[in-house]
Amino acid sequence: MNNQILNTSSTLLFSVIMLAVIFSLLTTNNYRQSNRQVLEQSTEYPSLSYVDLYQILRGEGMTDNVVLIDLRPAEDFKKSHLPNAINIPSEELLNRKHRRTLRTKKNLLLYAGSEHIAVAAQTILLAKGMDNVKAIPGNHHGIKEHILDGFDPSRAYFHEDKARWDHQRFMPLGTVAR
Amino acid sequence: MAPLIPHGIINPELTLFFALIVGIGFGYVLEQAGFSSAKKLAGVFYGYDFVVLRVFFTAGITAMTGLLFFNYLGWVDMTMVFINPTFLYSAITGGVIMGFGFIMGGYCPGTSIVAAVTGKIDAMLFIIGMFAGIFLFGHFYDLFEPLYNSHFLGNIFVYDSLGMSRSWFALILVITALLAFAITQLIEDKINKTSPEKIRTRPSYVLPAMLLIVSMIVFLFLPAERKSRPGERAPDVLLAEIHDEKTYVSTHRVIHEIKNGHNNLVLIDVRDKAEYDRFTLPGAVSIRPDAIPDRQWRPLFKKDQRDKVFFGNGNSKAVMAYLAASRAGYERIYLMDGGLNAMFGELFADEHIPDTTAYDLQNRSTARFLNSARQFFLEGGVAAKQEEEKPRIQAPEESEVIPVIGGC
Predict the structure, then answer these.
(1) pLDDT at res. B280
(2) A165 — contact with chain B (CB < 8 Å)?
């Protein structure tokens, strides 16, 4: 009798757990990287400097290995874009039609109208399991002005998350000893 | 009750009440397993009764299988389960003393209480001895302290020390346990001279054993960590949020809130700690993007009903923090558009603040606002606010874990 209860309950528990495992394997597969893994990779920001990009755009170094992706809307792309860039408007980043473009072994360099869109696209693509994406610091305008139209060495390691000023300076009384 | 109390599902003040219920249940199980009899307990040392080994090994592998799968499915958070840290030498000494006590007295601490409750006089004497030991240890603690704290190894795991993966270790442990059951049964039969008739009619435990092995083999093929978890927002939702204006809070709104001393926003500084220590907005709390999924911030995101605003120097780090928080399913989160660079650029550096005498009403009110804000910041209003609001949000202490004194 006791043995009967043991057998039934263990079979029941086993089947519940197995069903839950199968269900979870089938339902939740939005991401290929966990939140923490993505953060570990993406907080190595900026992953690319203008020095590297300058060499790439001038055709030195690893040019064959690189695909430039322009995340701005199509009309902006038509007006001007970096040489050899491919247009994928950032809203359509996850669309099926762009899947083939993104599925490549080459390094994808992303830029957009503003830096944080490129960073967001990089984060989302990393989470989808791609590890060959890099956001270019700065926006399209800045890249054009400071690299293509003449390399500006003072901007070699530019990115938008640098403090533009010593914020304290504006607050003469604002320093609080911690 | 490891995952329930730190999550706030059970009030910590009720801990003792639940301890009582769990304790009664534990005592009942021990009594039912026959652990109130010293003869049965000591049988494991003489080879006529291995019930101690069977009960505890069964409890161990059942709990292990359950925890492994529950952790995988996200039903139990293993980081919340207390793991006894290892002090190697004191553990060895304690084990030897406990073994001697077990053989001599016929009980271990938990079972002695169960036995005493059922009215066994030897168990009551055992308890007196136990308390005498506790008293002596407490009284001469200074003498024992070097041994007590010696060779601290932290929270180590057997499978790490052996250099194998957790799932392989679990499978091997399950097989070892089942083999041990079979072998001890043989020894028992030999010593007790059980009749072949009785052995044949004995209930068989093949089915649960097989299920256990199968589930451990299944676990072997599951990925070590689940990449996506239930309750996470999908990537296309995140992408849409980034393009949605509602995600962004203007620097003007933040300035307004600071200036008027409102307490409607939780400002979250995503810059490095060093930058935060030099300067930050009043009342801001420092959380780097990679710390967003940490358990300690969950109450802030889940329970605080105010709007949470991420800001950095620019937008980029704040966007990483925002995406991590949004993916984790947190609500009421926003980005300060442009970050501190935009805020102070507008207030102090860029020269395009419109004239307060501008014809256009919109421009005029913006100009007034910015001018008064500039004055407020320059006069050290921020410093005053910072001083008064500093302890607004603090990193919550690591949730207390109550050590579980395990064993029988």
Answers:
(1) 82
(2) yes
Bridge partners, residue B248, by sequence: B335
* A18/B contact by beta carbon, under 8 A: yes
CA distance B132 to B149: 22
CA dihedral A83, A85, A87, A91 (to 10 degrees): -120
A43 vs B: CB within 8 A = yes
Provide the shortest C-alpha distance from residue A16 to chain B (in Å). 11
Give me the residue label for tokens 């069977």: B54
- Dihedral of CA atoms B244, B245, B248, B254 in degrees, nearest 10, equals -160
Binding-face residues of B in 105-134 toward A, CB within 8 A: none
Q: Is B99 helix (H, G, I), strand (E, B) or coil?
A: helix
pTM of the model: 0.72
Q: What is the pLDDT of residue B399?
A: 46
Q: How does B146-167 read in b/e, with b if 16+ C-beta sit within 10 Å? A: eeeeeeeeeeeeebeeeeeebb
Chain B contact for A154, CB < 8 A?
no
- In this structure, chain B runs to a length of 408
Element (H, E) at B343: helix B339-344
**Chain B residues close to A2, C-beta within 8 Å:** 203
Low-confidence ranges of chain B (pLDDT < 70): 1-10, 224, 349-358, 380-408
Q: What is the pLDDT of residue B177?
A: 93
Tell me how many degrees the CA angle B265-A177-B375 measures, rounded to the nearest 5. Answer: 60
CA atoms of A19 and A25, how far apart (whole Å): 10
Partners of residue B208 in chain A, C-beta under 8 Å? 6-7, 10
* Confidence at residue A162, expressed as pLDDT on a 0 to 100 scale: 85
User: How does pLDDT run across A129-162, given as a tens digit for each residue?
Assistant: 888 888 888 888 888 888 888 888 888 888 888 8
Give the whole-angstrom CA distance, residue B135 versus residue B123.
18
Rounded to a whole number, what is the distance in Å from the CA of A65 to chain B's nearest CA?
Answer: 26
Give me the residue spans of the domains in chain A. 35-157
Chain length of chain A: 178
Cα dist. B253→A73, A116, B175, B271, B399 in Å?
Answer: 29, 20, 63, 20, 34
Instruction: Look up the CATH superfamily of A35-157.
Output: Rhodanese-like domain (3.40.250.10)
Query: ipTM beyond 0.95?
Result: no
Q: In what order do the strands lie in the sheet with B285-286?
A: B248-249, B333-336, B307-311, B265-269, B285-286
Q: Which helix (H) or strand (E) holds A66?
A: strand A66-70
Is B235-389 a CATH 3.40.250.10 domain? yes
The 10s digit of each residue's pLDDT in A18-71 is 898 888 888 777 788 888 888 888 877 777 888 888 888 777 766 678 888 999
**B168-205: pLDDT as tens digits:** 999 999 999 999 999 998 888 888 887 888 877 778 88
> What angle (nearest 5°) sits at the alpha carbon of residue A34, between those of residues A29 and A35?
120
Q: Are A117 and B322 in contact (CB under 8 A)?
A: no
| SS3 call for B364 | helix
- Which residues of chain B form CATH 3.40.250.10? 235-389
| Distance between A58 CA and the closest CA of chain B, angstroms | 27
